[in-house]
Write a structure and sequence with these properties.
Layout: H1 2-20, H2 28-47, H3 50-72, H4 75-95, H5 105-125
Helix pairs in contact: 1-5, 2-3, 2-4, 3-4, 4-5
């Protein structure tokens, strides 16, 4: 169920962003990527483990860097990174043990990220965004 909710929420947010015109700005999806990557840092901070906080911060920095570079050069990098973060969500627990993270989060976030990445890819493919 968290996966389905994540997918549906991504489509609703994208639809609202389209209706409001937020997605006309190149910064919308790079900002989404940076924010979704930051949640694991939040969960690490809630747990209080400095080691987990450092690992999650380093991971977030990679996604934030791709968001920055994609914003500056080509939004296809952002679409790929959103989908990639969704795939990372599926294996996150095997890579990093983050006790502050809710058990349902990886499935929810994976659904959101993959759907948001697919939406951005569809917008880029249709040339609605450049």
């Amino acid at each position: 169920m968290p996966l389905v909710i994540g997918v549906l929420l991504a489509f609703v947010v994208s639809l609202l962003a389209w209706a409001a015109g937020f997605d006309r700005d190149r910064s919308f999806y790079p900002t989404v990527l940076t924010v979704v990557a930051s949640y694991y840092v939040l969960f690490a901070a809630m747990d209080g483990s400095m080691r987990v906080l450092a690992v999650e911060s380093a991971t977030m920095a990679v996604f934030a860097l791709v968001a920055f570079l994609g914003f500056r050069s080509n939004l296809w990098w952002v679409a790929a990174a959103l989908a990639g973060h969704g795939l990372f969500d599926f294996v996150h627990g095997s890579v990093v043990h983050n006790p502050g993270m809710p058990t349902w989060w990886p499935a929810f976030c994976a659904g959101y990220d993959v759907a948001a990445g697919a939406t951005l890819a569809a917008l880029l493919r249709s040339r609605r965004l450049r």
